[in-house]
Amino acid sequence: MDDVTNLTPSQRRDFVLRSLGRTPDDQLELPGDEELGRVSIVHGATAEVISCDANGEEATRTCTFSSNLNPRPVAGDWVGLRESHVVKVLVRRSALRRPDPNGRDVQVLAANLDLVLLVVPINRGLNIRMLERFAIMGWESGARPFVVLTKADGASDIDTLLKETKLTVPGVDILTTSSQSGEGIELLRALLHEGVTAVMLGASGAGKTSLLNALEGSEEVTRTVNRSGEGRHATTTRKLYRLSSGGVLLDIPGIRLLDLLVGQDGVEETFSDIGELAQHCRFRDCSHQGDLGCAVQAAVERGELSAQRLENWRLIQTELAHQEHRRSPEEMAAQRKRLKSAAKNTRKK
Ligand SMILES: Nc1nc2c(ncn2[C@@H]2O[C@H](COP(=O)(O)OP(=O)(O)OP(=O)(O)O)[C@@H](O)[C@H]2O)c(=O)[nH]1
Ligand SMILES: [Mg+2]
Ligand SMILES: [Zn+2]
Q1: CA-CA distance, 223 to 230, in Å (whole number)?
Q2: Ligand 3: distance of its center to the CA of 274 in Å?
Q3: Structural domain spans, the chain
Q4: Quick one: pLDDT band at residue 346, thresholds 50, 70, 90?
Q5: Class of the domain covering 95-259
Q6: Class of the CATH-defined domain 271-336
Q7: What is the pTM of this model?
Q8: CATH topology of domain 9-90
């Protein structure tokens, strides 16, 4: 632990805010009567906030917030506090989102991220469709996706799995780990250094909390998920942890394939190989489905692109169209209005 006793108040404040994951991009100015904090966990209408006052004194407090505070604070948010009341959510520089369980709105799972760790187990082979969707959601967040393959101790033919992973998420870095043997944990620790906030995105049972425990020597609850799906969701809250490596890690409950948000930008990033090939199609609006002069299908015929990958891309395009369709124009307008006023509220005051 660094010795903070000899620091000036402003140095101490700097020290605390860095340990909370502040980056140079964060705009964290507040009026004099508000205290700055970062949300570690939200339970209904209360939020646990790690705050830092002008003297650099840190405190963890349970805070309330009004039901019409917009946006609602989530783990990872920087907030303005008055006493034990969250009065403002500062502009988010990135956010992991998914469709709200009601199917219409969008739910923010974690805010102000640098990395989205796509946590995928490989002890039973690689679930390509899942990885694709996690990657799309990761790219959509505005943070950098990063694949963390887990349970390497139970995997066979890791080289082939790695090749498959690379082809599925071109341009995304990959780390192979095992919480059991400790493989890759040191590299993960190095990745999560000071100034980095990461969130773990993965299915229930993928080994997210186990990674946290392996990094920290902690004993957060994990649970075996059997094939019938019983014992799912060992983790039930979204929570921010400050790591001994200096970074900040958010552990969240597992996400089901169906809950994933698909967005145009994320799809383009994830399927950038198809995008590049498509530049050579004869027609700009080529659907890569029997069109004349299609460079994508030509690549499939030459064996340079797998037919399965093109098929997955097509499925996701269909999904994207459905998702857009599900939202009526009125809802879209209402949401735009909400987003606008949220942005305004967080900027002024
Ligand atoms: N063999 C092996 N098993 C692991 C490894 N990591 C996790 N597990 C096991 O996988 C199961 C699920 O692990 P968790 O860490 O709870 O998974 P999780 O992703 O946090 O799950 P949720 O909290 O439900 O989203 C537990 O039984 C772990 O012991 C690993 O590296 N190797
Ligand atoms: Mg967990
Ligand atoms: Zn084409």
Answers
A1: 10
A2: 9
A3: 9-90, 95-259, 271-336
A4: very low
A5: alpha beta
A6: mainly alpha
A7: 0.88
A8: SH3 type barrels. (2.30.30)
